[in-house]
Amino acid sequence: MTKIQKMLAARELLKECGEYDTAIAGAIAEVYAEEILMMQKAPRGERGYDGIINGRKVQVKGKEWIRKNESASYIAISVNCTGLADDILVVYFDEGDNLSHIGPVRIENIDKGYKNSRETRYSISQIRLAWENQKLHPLSS
User: Fold this and answer.
1) Which end of the chain is less enclosed by CB atoms within 10 A, N or C?
2) Domains contained in the chain, number
3) Is the pLDDT of residue 141 over 50?
4) What's the average model confidence in pLDDT over 78-106?
């Protein structure tokens, strides 16, 4: 059983206990980034980023894909962590535990949807758009 399979099994056990907000999605996302995208994990407790992919600091966000409307879904980065990562990677999974990702995408290429005193929110649709543009024009990114 791979790490990802073990994490998904742990998620299923948690779901049996009821609908609770847990950090398991983030842990699954980080393991996915390590195993699938060869991310080098940041030291435990490192602030603002979760690892390094291709020499760039990456903030990894796990998202349970509940809504079909990407523009209504977002990820948030707290103001304490703003500016510490170079890229965002969104790892998401559906009801059948199929994993996929958007990114890594350069944070400076994403249109910010909303910013307040605690966090900056990036819509999933804007992250996807920036990633698609980055893949089409890698030298201009």
Assistant:
1) N
2) 1
3) no
4) 87
